[in-house]
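Illustration: Diacylglycerol O-acyltransferase.
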Amino acid sequence: MPDRLSALDASFLYLEDATTPMHVGGVAVFERPRDGFDHAQVLCLIQQRLGYLPRYRQRVVSVPGHLARPVWVDDVDFDLNYHVRRSALPAPGTDDQLYDLVARLMARTMDHERPLWEAYFVEGLEGDRIALVTKTHESVVDGSGTVELGQLILDTTPQACEPFEDTWVPRRPPSATQLVLDAVSETVRRPGELVENVRDVVSDLTATADKVTDAVGGVAAALHRVLQPAPSGPLNRHVSGGRVFAVVRTRLEDYRKVRAEHGVTVNDIVLAAITGALREWLLSRGEGVSEATTVRALVPLAVLEPDTVEFSPAGLVNNQVEPYLVDLPVGEPNPVLRLQHISHTLRAHADSGRSVAARAMLKVGGFAPATMHALAARAAGAFSGRIFNLLVINSPGPQVPLYAGQARMTEMFPVIPLARNQALAIGVTSYHGGVYFGLNGDRKALSDVDVLAGMIEDSLEELKGASW
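Result:
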């Protein structure tokens, strides 16, 4: 039987165009070890792990006449050097230069004639640092058969890449005739499938988005509010083909202090810090902000069923990542009241009997947030940007050092894709005592994304000093 894309995975391909690439990214920064860490070592490391990720050596092939959804086939011309590319920053190699490179890389769609992932080994970063920028299409990572590459190449101890023999042999791809025969055979068993597949190709964006929602498995029913249009504002603009990227570095200890003071969760504080920053950002742009003004965030949360014994990324498939709409009270001038409002809103989710899997996620090997951000972006992809203003994905990571080969990772910033009419997406993760924000924005609508990033730091400082 053909390895056919699911309705959800196929929809990500149908939704993608030049202005809305459907890939999730990550920016990992490393200290260069004394023995060095070069492109050849990265190639060796990734090649060693590809045996655990068969999807990373497969490409998508369409069925003639669109009689069925596309299929995954082994890429007989797979070229690791094509996917793992070498890049370098010009002197002096500042962080801002790196973020500008990230923005340009993330703006580009990937070649659908090849496996849908890329990695960039970036040298020349000041302070004798190197970076690894990854891009993985949302159709690739399902959390069950395939996790994100960034999770698999990181270890808790330094690992030397020993020479090894790659025994992978690609399977011969099916012919066009075989693809049609397989499609016809499936149509005989399920006659309605043919109509659905043709509709996928000719439908407009609204119909496609509706199909994605169905493919998620009715996850829209999990939203704890009526689906109404989001408040209008500068965050909902028709996106261009350009991107801007900015980061925020904060310390986990600061969140713990605020948590102890106000009895809230770290996720509550993250959203409150973003809320305070959005308030100041809107005011700086001359936008009208009243006490009733809100910005609606789509916040996918990883959850565990009450009887779940052990957590793994595979346990998050089938609606285990649930998107929640949270109206961020940007009109509230008091930082504590903003925090309490957000905490109260999210507490309803915690009281529903399905617990947020933050603690359990810390037990997963490698860097699980890489996979979690991909799964959360998939879940968010089910919804039209008309019902939310921005996407916020927060996933906790390990509080111990991780290594790619023998290079120690110092920072990790997520890069979350933009949807149509959505100018900002924020990814957040914690790692080894830090909490790191990656802000992906549209270059035309959010050219001042670095200003917003600085305001998140200011908002957190405000929360640290606030009390009843």
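Reading the tokens back as a structure: Confidence is low (pLDDT under 50) at residues 200-226, 311-319.
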